[in-house]
Design a protein that fits this description.
Protein name: Cochlin
Radius of gyration: 30 Å
CATH class of the largest domain: Alpha Beta
Number of strands: 20
Region (Disordered): 145-169
Strand content: 15-25%
CATH architecture of the largest domain: 3-Layer(aba) Sandwich
Structural class: alpha/beta
Main location: secreted
Number of helices: 14
Subcellular location: Secreted
Strand order of the largest sheet: 1-2-5-8-4-3
Shape: elongated
GO biological process, one term: sensory perception of sound
Number of domains: 3
CATH superfamily of the largest domain: von Willebrand factor, type A domain
């Protein structure tokens, strides 16, 4: 991997700038650095630094967008992210692990470069203006004009501020989308920040409780800070206070898309298994459409709450491009995800009810999607009429279905049973809790050969695969058979459905349509599939996946 020649020059200038300064232990005091100082030159993974003015006059080395390779200029990254202007200023640097595929982009007059891989990374954020404490030490050179020694000033010990414990009952990752449009204006924007600060205090931000980041909604969305930048309520409240007003149109849909695609990323502090929430604040109404962005959010397992302030009056509705914008934006149109306030004045009474909603984990319906919250049981005909070659085509269909789902120990699960006259548990829902292992196990199922007793196989699946209860995931059974069963299928299939199992019946060759309809859940036309040839099975992958998602949505 080769880097630009001028990078060598910045390496030495960066090191020199650091050796002329002392990195104290006080994170509140920014340390001056040069324009070329890189994150890798810092001794700490989290540091406040002070960038000089006019850094764009230099040829800055910058690799990445949002997350930068640690060999990049800190000040260059801060300008690129819009954290500081050409006049320089304080920046907070957060070290991250290395990654692959650093993306190039152009922003705020700076072009970053792509990089295939680097060993460490960093992000930048605005510093928060914490109040300075009076130091207990005095300068040795401090004297009065007459030369007499200054009398020591008696100081009273300050009581430490009360510590706030993180709310363990609210383990969520949350993005607050603040309205920074022309519609809200500077004054109401400040009132919005005051409300959000009180909300953060009520939520009791911190590990292992809620983590919060902020994105601004305007003409173009802008991430102010990510989940991992501030993990105490005190720091977060000061950071919110420093957020500047932008102006522009209220492009809420654009801001939601930006947040779904860029904010909820493990590199930025997203925690595995924690519900993800977007809280959208809108003063008036959005300038763009929100439906497409909201669909993407729901499919990504993100719960959207919509806080509407000063909603449009009846005479203003003609100005609104998407009149039912709130209903289309929220996770589910059941009133739980909607919140209204008449204005930004007198909002104290709304803080606690909103905080309570945001911490009601059991009602976060969009955290559970058809991709991450289902158990898929595969009941596979291994009779002699199938044959080894066609059996592989059956497995190919099941593999193509399974690949669509987020299989993990906290997500979706798959299990498989092969049947003839007998049944063989190939693997249950708990044996393979990573996607790669589950798909490998499915692919390597050996063909049995024998007779066909589908009814007994369904009873075996209910008894051995779906019991005892397998958590809160929705249960699906996909049966693939190529012929007539020697036993009754209707009774076992009805018993399975009474247990809450949705049944899909896939028939090939000589499988009777009467049996397929008897086994399948209602409506039959969307749960029964048939093809004369095993080579035709592949066409059913997408209809079955779409059907599972439709059934899942209706179930919830």
């Amino acid at each position: 991997m080769s880097l630009p020649l001028f990078f060598v020059f910045y390496f030495f200038t960066g090191i020199l700038s650091l050796t002329c300064c002392t990195f104290g232990s006080d994170l509140n005091v920014p340390t001056p650095i040069s324009c070329g100082t890189r994150a890798v030159d810092l001794p700490d993974t989290r540091k406040r630094v002070l960038c000089p003015a006019n850094c764009t006059l230099w040829s800055l080395s910058l690799f990445g967008s949002g997350v930068y390779a640690s060999v990049s200029s800190i000040c260059g990254a801060a300008i690129h992210r819009g954290i500081i202007s050409l006049s320089g200023g304080p920046v907070e640097v957060h070290g991250l692990q290395g990654r692959t595929n650093y993306l190039s982009s152009y922003a705020h007059g700076i072009q970053s470069q792509s990089l295939s891989q680097w060993s460490s990374s960093f992000t930048v954020a605005r510093t928060i203006s914490l109040p300075l404490e009076v130091s207990s030490q005095t300068s040795s050179s401090a004297t009065v004009a007459s030369g007499a020694a200054k009398k020591p000033v008696k100081k009273t010990a300050k009581k430490p501020p009360p510590t706030t414990t993180a709310n363990r009952d609210c383990p969520v990752d949350m993005a607050l989308l603040l309205d920074s449009s022309y519609n809200i204006g500077q004054r109401r924007f400040n009132l919005q920040k005051n409300f959000v600060s009180k909300l953060v205090a009520m939520l009791k931000v911190g590990t292992p409780g809620p983590h919060v980041g902020v994105v601004q909604t305007s003409e173009t969305p802008r991430t102010e800070f990510y989940l991992s930048n501030y993990t105490t309520a005190k720091d977060l409240m000061f950071a919110i206070k420093e957020i500047p007003y932008i102006g522009g149109n209220t492009n809420t849909g654009k801001a939601i898309l930006h947040t779904v695609r860029n904010f909820f990323n493990p590199d930025f502090g997203v925690r595995r298994g924690y519900p993800r929430i977007i809280v959208v604040f809108v003063d008036g109404w959005p300038s763009d459409n929100v439906e497409e962005a909201a669909i993407l959010a729901r499919e990504s397992g993100i719960n959207i709450f919509f806080v509407s302030v000063a909603k449009p009056a009846p005479e203003e509705m003609s100005l609104v491009s998407e009149q039912d914008f709130m209903r289309k934006a929220v996770c589910k149109d059941n009133e739980f995800f909607s919140f209204t306030m008449p204005s930004w004045f007198g909002t104290n009474k709304f803080v606690k009810p909103l905080a309570h909603k945001l911490c009601s984990i059991d009602q976060m319906l969009c955290s559970k999607t058809c991709y991450n919250s289902v158990n898929l049981g595969f009941l596979i005909d291994g009779s002699s009429s199938v044959g080894d070659g066609n059996f592989r085509l059956v497995l190919d269909l099941l593999l193509s279905i399974a690949r669509n789902f987020d299989i993990s120990d906290i997500g979706s699960r798959i299990g498989a049973i092969q049947f003839t006259y007998d049944q063989r548990m190939e693997f249950n829902f708990n044996e393979h809790t990573t996607k790669d292992n589950a798909l490998r196990a499915l692919q390597n199922i050996p063909y049995m050969s024998g007779g066909t007793a589908t009814g007994d196989a369904i009873n075996f699946a209910v008894r051995s695969l779906f019991k005892p209860r397998t958590g809160s995931n929705k249960n699906f059974l996909i049966i693939i058979t190529d012929g007539q069963s020697y036993d009754d299928v209707r009774g076992p299939a009805m018993a399975a459905q009474r247990e809450g199992i949705t049944v899909y019946a896939v028939g090939v060759a000589w499988a009777p349509m009467e049996d397929l309809k008897a086994m399948a859940s209602e409506p039959k036309e969307s749960h029964v599939f048939f093809t004369r040839e095993f080579t035709g099975l592949a066409q059913f992958q997408q209809p079955i996946v779409r059907g599972i998602c439709r059934d899942f949505t209706e179930f919830n």
